[in-house]
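This is your field. Please look over both lines of this record.
***
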Amino acid sequence: MKRIIPIVVFLVFLTSCNQTKIAYVDIQEIMKEYKGTKETEEALKAKQEKLGAELDSLIMGWQTRAQSFDKEAAKLSPNVRGERQQMLMQEQQAIRQHQQDLQIQLQREGEESVKAITKAIDSFVQGYAKTKGYNFVLGTSDDTKAVLFADKEADITEDVLLQLNKSYKGKE
């Protein structure tokens, strides 16, 4: 009996040392402050501005041709007037379609970028958790409320963000 008590105490001590370590991160904060997110947003914004400028140029050219047509319309024969009017309408439709295509393209690129950023963050957090000895790292945000309550000491968002930004290599 005397031998069993120390063994039981030792086993209880061992089990208490192997407690599960749980932490959480604020996903919105990480996505907002991550260098990779900021760089990607800047690149997408620059691309959107460039494509917008090209589209504006197409629209201005069309408007110039439409104004020119309006000035000359009275002097043109009905057949020529109808043909030119038809051409202007087709050109306008082509410009609208091009605008929609560009919007879809930018939206897809934005979605792909978010997926890539999310994947990079997830991968980083996995390595971080293993390095720091966490069994679980939960993600929460104002939208999801996956963590309803947690002690602020379990919030590792700031450290994860700091380490994540340090490890960020940037676009090459």
About this structure: Strands lie at 22-26, 136-140. The chain has five helices and two strands. The first helix runs from residue 4 to 17. Helices lie at 4-17, 27-33, 35-72, 78-132, 157-167.
